[in-house]
Write a structure and sequence with these properties.
about 240 residues; two-stranded antiparallel sheet; about 60% helix
Length: about 240
Amino acid sequence: MNKVLAEYISICSQFRKDGLSKPERKQRHAMLSEWTKNIHTDEIPTMLELCEFRDCYGELCYNNYFIKSIIIPVVAADFENNGIDGIKFLFSCFRGHDRLYNNANSPLSIFCDAIGYKYNPIQLADKVLEAEPENPDALNFKYYSLKSYLEFSLHEMPSGILDGMNGASVSAIPDMFHIVDEFQCLSEKLSLNDDSTLIADCRKFYSAYENYLKNLDSFKNFADYLNRNGIEYKVYSNTYYYE
C-alpha cells in the first residue's frame, strides 16, 4: 500500500470511530497535523490507489485532513489533465451518505472551494454526465441538489419565492422553470420518490410570483395576490431531509 495511506490508516486505527474525549480528539488532531506536514509531493497516491483506498476504507475518506491533503491534490491533478476520474471519485464519496449532498465539508464542496468555484458542484456533475450519461453517482447528486433547491425556493410560502437565498426576480423565473424541467426529467428517470406535488407547486407558484412581481402596486403582498386570485397554497417547512 502507498506509504502515506498506510500511515493515515495507522493513525486512525488508534482511535475509535465515535465518542472521542476531548484529550483523544486533541491527540488525534496533533497526529494528523504532523502526518500532513510530512507528506511529500512524490508520495501522494495515484488516482487508482485512492479509488482502492475508498473501496476498502471508505469511512476514512471524510476527515478534513485526508480530504485536503490527499483527495484534493489527486483530484486536482487529474482534473488539470482533463481527466474525469477525479470528479467521478468526488461523487462516489456520497454513496451511503445522502445527507452530505449539501454539506460544506464534503469532498466535493471542499474541492470546489479549492479551485475558487471555477466550477460549482452542479457543473461538475454535468461534466461527468456529458461523458457518462448514466453515471449513478452524478445523477443522484444532481437529483437531490435540484430537489433541495426547489423545496427551499418554496419554504417561505406564502411570503414569497426564493432564488437561492434571495427573493426571486422577474428575470430569474425562466431559469427557475428550467431547473423544474431538469428536475422533472431526473425524477422520472430515477423514480426515487413521487415528486409530482413539488413539481406542480413550483410551476404554479413560480408563475404566480412572476405575475405578482409585475403587478406589485395592485397587491399588499404575495399572500394577498394568491388569495385574491383563488390560488390555494400551504405553508412549507423550512427544513428538508433526504429520504
